[in-house]
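hiii, so i know i said id send this last week but things got crazy w the move. better late than never?? heres the sequnce for the chain we talked about at the cafe, plus the structure i predicted for it. fair warning i was half asleep when i ran it
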Amino acid sequence: MFASLSLVSLALLGCGEEPPPPQIDPALAALEDPAPTGPEGRAIAVSVPLTGPSAALGQLALDGVRLAVPPGLQVVAIDEQQGDPVPQALADERVVGVVAHVTEVGAERWAGGWAATDLAVVMAAPATVPDVPRVLAGADRHVRCASAFLGRGRTLIVHDGTAESTNVSNAAERVLGGRSQGIRVIDPRLMANEASRVRAAGPDWIVYTGSPASGGNLLRALRQLGGDAQFLGVGLYDPRFVAAAGEPGEGALVTSQDRPAVDEQVVQRWRSEHRTEPATVALNAYDAARLLVEAWATAEVPDRAQLRSAVKARLRQVEVSGAAGAMKLDDEGVVEPAWCTAFRVRGGALALDGVARVIGHKVETVDLAAERAALQALRAAPPGTTTAEGQADPPPQAPPSP
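okay and structure toks below
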């Protein structure tokens, strides 16, 4: 690790004379870095909305990052509602990495600027931006993960024509292959007619990828027409779906690509600090920050001027434990494993129904209780030893000086 350079002054001492002032080589003086060393002089920036309609989400993400960073490492909040966050982060010399965005709008507007910088950036938003790592799965992985909750039978893919729903539907068509009856685009303004057409296709399952409200309205209309196909809303974990579907929505499945709370220690720390259960947006930001902290703590930095680029390069190599357990970035910059959570409408509310993950080409449902027990056993193992699940965490390392 890089250590601070100290200057050696040469004093010529004469017999019985006062020593002259120290003489410092100007070339050595230029190497002296007046900035603080150690974690106290470094920071993780958080680019989220802190004003406006999404301010509550931004604050949750900010709190999630604060939970993830070690003592001394600062957290710098950037309100992306007030302008482009990229130059703000670049101008702050303390910043070694950025947790960026919690909304698709923010990611689409600003995230493209991060790729051209030397900053390590991890997005916590449900969006795909080329060359910017992210903790959430994206359309293809989300659909693959959600397919773990589909039963047997013919499947009709339905969406409402938006660009995002078209993208997810196309991903579903690729994933389901021969099981799919094709893709049906509906007009939300003509829901009764559209529901009749969907019912006439005779699917066993409807995979819906449009907006939560139109999905709820479609399901309500289907049930009123006597349609009994099972319903899976990919990405429809949203109270607007439940409100629109009403009582006919009972039993429907919806999914979220947010990361689940597997690590009970993270959950307990959040409860202790906030007196609530951890929100998914906070857990996403927590995991993004954990990757950045590990990259910063283990980067080989030959020169202070190269600290940011060294952390960015190291980010693609680290593996660390987050709220959802062990994780790393794959070749596409997406955290692996990718997770999804299924919820079933019960009594007019969304209740947890199951959890699944994607590791490489493998898709599997996960027993959360067993996963949590395995993580606790791994953590309880002596440092440097192994359990049936793998390598225990090594002893904590001191943070680097850059």
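btw The radius of gyration is 26 Å. thought thatd interest u
miss u guys!!
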